[in-house]
Amino acid sequence: PAQPALLTLPPSTPDSVNISAHARDPVANGTTGDPMTSDLFPEEDPALPSPLASLLDDSTMFDEISLLALALEEGFSPALASRLEDELDSDSGLSLNFSHVPASPSSSEASYSSSSSSSSSASTVASLFSEEGAVGYSSDVAAEGEEEGGFSTDLSKISPLSFRDPESFNRLPWLQHVGHDHTYNQQRPAAAKTQKGLRPHLAKPYEHDASDRMWGRDERRARGLKIPFSNERIVNLPVEEFNDLLAEHRLTDAQLTLVRDIRRRGKNKMAAQNCRRRKLDVLVDLEAGVSGLRRHRARLLREKTEALRSIQAMKQRVSGLYQEVFSRLRDDEGRPLAAAEYALQFGSDGRVLVAQRRQGSAGEPNRRPSKKQERRKK
DNA sequence: CTGTCGTGTCATACC
DNA sequence: GGGGTATGACACGAC
Questions:
Q1: Could you tell me the distance in Å between the CA of residue A107 and the C1' of nucleotide B1?
Q2: How far apart, in whole angstroms, are the C-alpha atoms of residue A139 and residue A145?
Q3: What is the pLDDT of residue A183?
Q4: Cβ of A271 < 7 Å from strand C?
Q5: Fewer CB within 10 Å, N side or C side of chain A?
């Protein structure tokens, strides 16, 4: 015998009357609108009147919950997942599947860059993506490039978060198959290409044929025009030294043009490499952001499901209390009230009224005239 | 044979 | 205005 003590009712007022015969007067049933009461009866189930009928309409809620449960399987539904995938895969020209990140600026890239790139562009990159943005592009590093490819084998420093560090980026295990060597401005031993036939992707100082071809082109042109210094110097020398170099040698217009072209192309080649690496960085960051948002979304869905369950439990509890209260009500002759004919109304002032249901309309109770009874419950 | 990838180069905009 | 950088677009060879 649970005590229905959850309903707090105000004292009886002059408006309060007991249920009587004329309470069932059909004439009065048509009127509505006691502003102090709210109609909370279910219209479709007179046998189960409930003050939270509208909320107890579970047809949508359960659907929602079941959908949520489905969505929670992996944080989101397959449909949403595929939609996300589609959105993510759209354009960009680059795959988002970074389990096999294809492009990898080689470590020797750093050796190829001039100090100038670490000033403006690198700082811009750093501000956008990482403090480490494009570090390592100093002429100091350029000296290290002499080690022919510069494939360090210090794997202990490898970290998945080291994408932005060109050195460690290149050392990532899943990138190690990319053995391109971009020390284009250095003379290479002819033997370098001989490794290609054995293990092309793992050959240490493997030189990309395309780069060889292109670099060789300028190299040949330079030789053809008898440029008296190396292309490496042409590209990597600081402006002042470069101008000094040009001043030292009396160059023809053709030579001058070629030298400036070589320098421009070399600079742009590095810029392109940096640009592509940044693009990959952006994609990595975006993918991390997507993962974070997916986790966040899954958490919110879990919380929502939990909240819905809680609401459902509360509704059931209230419904039970309603039934209990109603079952204890009696008319003037001591008979239990028929749930099909009467229902409880709850006023905003805390009053609880027994109202007669509207004739013809199964669920809608009569309001004002049926305020025949108001009882206190303790 | 075709598609993809990596790269160099060019054109262009911008600083 | 020259030099450098950033980036989209394109070409090309490798795979």
A1: 35
A2: 10
A3: 32
A4: yes
A5: N
